[in-house]
Amino acid sequence: MKSIPTSYRSRVEIDARALTHNLRVFRKLVKNNVRVMVVVKSNAYGHGLVECAKLFSGRTATGGTTANVVDWLGVDDLDEALALRKSGIKLPLLVLGYTLPARYTEAAKSNISVTVSSIESLRHSLKIENRKLKIHLKLETGLNRQGITETELTEALKFLRTLEHVMLEGAYSHFAGDAPKFTKFSQKQSVSFNRMAKQIENALDRNVIKHIADTAATVLLPQSHLDMVRIGIGSYGLDPFSDPKLPIVKKLKLKPALSWYSIIAQVKSVKKGERVGYDLTEKLKRDSTLAIVPVGYWHGYPRSLSSKGEVLVRGRRCKVVGRVSMDMMTIDVTSVPGVKLGDVVTLIGKGLSAEGVATKAGTINYELVTRINPKLPRVYK
After folding, report:
1. Residue 41 among the catalytic residues
2. One of 272, 278, 308, 381 is an active-site residue; which one?
């Protein structure tokens, strides 16, 4: 039976070998001249920003090297990028989210590429001096989120040619939905993106790095690989559709890297008819053995799993009883023989997939793992 040190109430374990395996799987899916960007935004989808970036850049020996597998890393904001530069990461970095124009010079100083998705942001780059800011233009092709539209592109390029200290390094877009049912819409987006990218390269009279494929598109739409693919949640062995049946995970034989454990902090007997938790939301239908687990929604365990979540104790499924509190929850361990203080509780792991837990919580695996509190210790094996 698995045990965790008594100094931890809860911890996240990351299987470095699984991460290495997953990246090699994706590397084999693309041609040698196609770059691979691994997305480590939002604390590497809950897996730990700096440690994962070190592994992806080939600097960590645990589980084998990923050198020459990863070409770029993608982050959400400039602070994540700066944290990676401070930790010694030298791979090219692209900030995928919004960067405050006031920080463009800071990005340029650290050789960090930023996303520009509006003409207004381009205008702010006039203030950059004595540094060359590398940018990737985000193009609007159908998601209707970030992005310069096709009608705006001519004006944007005209203005861009006046900027001495800005170098257009790449252009990209994002699929609105790349499940098989969205294939026609994805193809329409691809056509729009390719047309806009050609306009950019004709205007500049040179090539730029073109990228639109995410994890799912890398697998299902090989024609979208272009110059670079962006592997996000698939890097961590999680399904891009958050489907409990794990279609992509099984298809590629990916290995989920993250497991989340806690311990039993108290065991008690409670009579039939007693109520449990805040607002007395659950009434026991039998004499029960209950256990307290010192994890709650502050740690990232969804409150929506109140009275319906399941965890594993000694290999047996145990139901969450009553409300999930801020820092603890109650589970029913009546069917677990020999249960005792300190027993390990699996929240996510073998036999309890992130996709399955997320579905029961009414959300997706992306949200579930990225909301695991970054203050929880992460142990890499």
Report:
1. yes
2. 278
